[in-house]
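Usage

Read records sequentially. Each one opens with the input sequence:
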Amino acid sequence: MFSKEILVKNKIPVHHLKKKDFLFREDQKATQLHYLLVGEITIYNTDSEGKEFLISKVIDRHFLGEPPFLLGERYPANAVITSDSAEIFSFSPDLFQKFMVDHPDVLLQFTKEIARKAYDKTLKLKSIAHLNPCERIINFLKIHKRSIGIELEDKIIIHVTRKEMANSTGLAVETVIRTVKKMEKDGKLELINHKIHY
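and closes with the structure output:
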């Protein structure tokens, strides 16, 4: 969405983080809106037993934490760097407002990105509540592809572990493994060197 030049020109503060650093933690007050220019960040919740529930993986050129920032709420999840390093620009409320007023075309893109995330979360919740394991996995794969900018009809290797898939779909890891093998047998996906090709 943004180039580094426009962010630097508008004096948006930058942070350089490394693998396993937290960008924010669940229940922390959202005082900044983060824009990941380069890297990968995993957004997840942890239940009372310590089990992680994958919400999403954020890659280059995407925002993080928009709803709590815009509403002045607390982050509902943790965000941890999963790439070797990450370059993140952070907007204060005043900087964000000025930036969007000065760049109305970006405001429309930003609004569409929030709408896309809300739509994907609705699909994910529907999937967890109503679909069988195969349908949940297909839904997860579609949402994952769309989130990284891949058209649904284009086949790619999915770089997500079975554990991450289980955490995101509400299934047990064993169920994901068993279902993926059945899906391969049924021709719904391919496995190439144990990686899902979909």
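Summary fields computed downstream for this record:
- DSSP finds seven helices and eleven strands in the chain.
- The mean pLDDT is 91.
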